[in-house]
Design a protein that fits this description.
Helix content is about 50%, strand content about 5%. It has a 3-stranded mixed beta sheet. The chain has about 280 residues and is mainly alpha-helical. Helix 6 crosses helix 7 and helix 7 packs antiparallel against helix 8. It is elongated and about 65 Å long. It contains 13 helices and 3 strands; from the N terminus they run αααββααβαααααααα.
C-alpha cells in the first residue's frame, strides 16, 4: 500500500461495509479502464455466490427444523436466542453440543461461560445471514471460528482480511494479536508472515514521514521487533526476509485472488441435504 493512500485517522466501521471483495471477478471490474473490453459475468462474484448459497442452506434448514436454543454467555449470563439446527450445520462444536451421540433431541439452552456475547452474537448473525457485521478485530473472529470448529466462518473472516489489507496496512497490534491467538503452522500465521514479507510495514518512505499518526504506527512496529518472539523469528529466520521490503508485483501478495486459497481452511462438509437427512434418521429433527 502506498503511504499517500492510507488515512490513519479514518474511524473503524463495520468490516462488511469497509472492505471490498477481492475475488477475481471484482478485481477485474476494479481494474477496468474506459475503453477496455470487460467480460461481464452476472452473479460470478465469489462473495455473492457464497452469500446466495448460504441463504439457500439456511432456508432449507429452517424448513426442516425451527427449534430454537438459548445461549447463555459469559460470566454475567448474557442470553442469545438462535436457530439450533443452523448453528449445528455451520459449527461442529455446536453440532456435538446439540446433537451428540448421547444428547436428546431437545437441547433448549447451552452455557458458554468462557466466551463474550459480542463474539458469539457475531457468529450467530453470520450463521443466520451469511454476513459478518462486527467491529471486533478480525484476528479474534478468526480464532473464534477455530474454537467453534466452523471452517466456513473462519474462511469468511479471512476474506475480510484480504479486503482489509487493500484498505489499510497491517498494524503491529493486529500482527501480534494474530500470533497470540493462533498456533504455529496455522493459516493465519502464514498469511500474516506473507503479508509482512511482501508489504513490509517499515518499507521505504514510511520511516521518514512527518505524519505523526504514521510515525506512531511505525514506532509500534519498532517495539514489536525489539521484543522479538515467534513473529520476528518467523520473518527473519524462516522467511529469510525483513520488515522493509515491498513486492513490486501485486500477484506476489497473499490477498491476490490467485493466492487466497493458500490461506483458507478446507471447508468441504456434508451437504445441507445430507445434514438434514442424517438428523431426521437419528430422530433429532
Amino acid at each position: 500500500m502506498d503511504l499517500e493512500m492510507w488515512n490513519p485517522q479514518k474511524e473503524k466501521i463495520a468490516y462488511t461495509r469497509e472492505y471490498m471483495c477481492q475475488c477475481w471477478d471484482c478485481k477485474d471490474r476494479e481494474d477496468y479502464e474506459e475503453g477496455d473490453l470487460l467480460e461481464l459475468r452476472p452473479g460470478s462474484c465469489a462473495k455473492s455466490n457464497r452469500l446466495d448459497l448460504h441463504t439457500i442452506q439456511v432456508c432449507k434448514i429452517d424448513m426442516a427444523s425451527s427449534a430454537l436454543v438459548t445461549l447463555i454467555i459469559g460470566p454475567h449470563g448474557a442470553k442469545i436466542v438462535a436457530p439450533r439446527a443452523v448453528l449445528a450445520f455451520y459449527s461442529r462444536f455446536f453440532d456435538a453440543a446439540f446433537y451428540g451421540n448421547f444428547k436428546e433431541s431437545k437441547v433448549d439452552f447451552l452455557e458458554l461461560p468462557e466466551d463474550d456475547d459480542e463474539s458469539i452474537n457475531t457468529f450467530v448473525a453470520w450463521a443466520k445471514t451469511g454476513q459478518i457485521y462486527s467491529t471486533l478485530e478480525l484476528e479474534g473472529l478468526w480464532a473464534l471460528g477455530t474454537r467453534l470448529q466452523s471452517d466456513l466462518f473462519t474462511n469468511e473472516v479471512m476474506y475480510y482480511m484480504f479486503g482489509r489489507a487493500v484498505a489499510k496496512p497491517l498494524s503491529a497490534n493486529n500482527a501480534q494479536l494474530a500470533y497470540s491467538l493462533s498456533l504455529p503452522g496455522s493459516k493465519l500465521r502464514a498469511y500474516i508472515r506473507r503479508l509482512i514479507v511482501t508489504e513490509g510495514p517499515l518499507q521505504k518512505g514510511w520511516l521518514g514521514t512527518r505524519n505523526d499518526k504514521v510515525r506512531a504506527w511505525c514506532e509500534e512496529w519498532g517495539r514489536l521487533i525489539r521484543e522479538g518472539g515467534d513473529l520476528v523469528y518467523d520473518i527473519v529466520v524462516e522467511e529469510e526476509a525483513s520488515f522493509y521490503q515491498l513486492a513490486d508485483d501485486i500477484s506476489d501478495r497473499p490477498y491476490y485472488y490467485e493466492n487466497q486459497d493458500d490461506y483458507l481452511q478446507d471447508d468441504s462438509q456434508v451437504s445441507v441435504e445430507g445434514f438434514i437427512e442424517a438428523k431426521c434418521k437419528e430422530g433429532k429433527f
